[in-house]
């Protein structure tokens, strides 16, 4: 009789193939090329620095410089020399820090350097530059920037730019230019907020233009509601309630 069975050599070969190694090597086997080791990428650093620490370092570098344009631009160029992409977030955070510290000259230098690189051409950047120029007393440059932004973005200019220019002229007593900006605002169909109406109304009262003041208050009556952000949510609050809370805060300060 014939008996079917496996030869000992075949059984041993099958057992060897079935054994799974416990430790895997970090090798990648390519097609007909053998194992190839994996090395870490050269351009990736394991010790990464966050944007907050980078922005703080940028602020410290800029604040210790003189007002010479070439020196400031040279330091800023060396700061971003080893970056693969322009560190826009780092520069924006540094500008916020400088704005909080009221370093208006440094803000002007950093923003102009960033715009010369073709980066950060947004409305927020132009608004920061406009504020810094006005606070630094460079009114002519602020007006040139305003005319440039106004002519290039005639139908899409945000209302905060009109508020900023009217407040600049209001603080300096330049009533005619303030009226021009307000007229442009009405012509474009942009509704002024309570701050603009109050400033223009105060100027009308000081100049004795009571008829225009009455027309202004009839056309733009004071709002009954205002929107405030509480814990990240937009909440509508009555103006009377806000006025009462402001009065209570003033009385508490006077009592203290």
UniProtKB/TrEMBL annotation:
Alphabetical UniProt keywords: Repeat
This protein's record includes keyword Repeat: yes
Record InterPro entries: EMB1417-like (IPR044646), PPR_rpt (IPR002885), TPR-like_helical_dom_sf (IPR011990)
Name of the protein this chain belongs to: Pentatricopeptide repeat-containing protein At4g21190
Record has Repeat as a keyword: yes
Species assigned in the record: Anthurium amnicola
Chain positions of PPR repeats: 122-156, 158-192
Stored PANTHER family: OS01G0757700 PROTEIN
């Amino acid at each position: 009789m014939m008996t079917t069975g496996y030869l000992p050599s075949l059984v041993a070969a099958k057992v060897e193939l079935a054994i799974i190694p416990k430790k895997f090597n970090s090798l990648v086997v390519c097609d007909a090329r053998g194992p190839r080791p994996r090395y870490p990428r050269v351009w990736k650093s394991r010790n990464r620095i966050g944007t907050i620490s980078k922005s703080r370092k940028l602020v410290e570098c800029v604040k210790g410089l003189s007002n010479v344009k070439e020196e400031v631009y040279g330091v800023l160029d060396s700061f971003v020399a080893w970056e693969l992409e322009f560190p826009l977030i780092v520069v924006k955070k540094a500008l916020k820090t400088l704005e909080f510290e009221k370093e208006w000259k440094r803000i002007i230098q950093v923003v102009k350097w960033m715009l010369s690189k073709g980066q950060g051409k947004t409305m927020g950047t132009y608004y920061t530059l406009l504020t810094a120029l006005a606070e630094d007393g460079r009114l002519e440059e602020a007006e040139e920037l305003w005319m440039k932004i106004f002519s290039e973005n005639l139908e899409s200019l945000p209302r905060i730019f009109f508020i900023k220019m009217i407040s600049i002229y209001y603080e300096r007593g330049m009533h005619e230019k303030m009226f021009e900006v307000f007229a442009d605002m009405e012509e474009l169909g942009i509704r002024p907020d309570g701050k603009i109406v109050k400033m223009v109304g105060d100027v009308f009262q000081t100049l004795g233009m009571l008829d225009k003041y009455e027309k202004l208050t009839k056309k733009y009556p004071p709002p009954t509601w205002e929107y405030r952000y509480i814990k990240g949510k937009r909440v509508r609050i009555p103006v009377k309630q806000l006025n009462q809370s402001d009065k209570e805060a003033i009385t508490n300060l006077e009592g203290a």
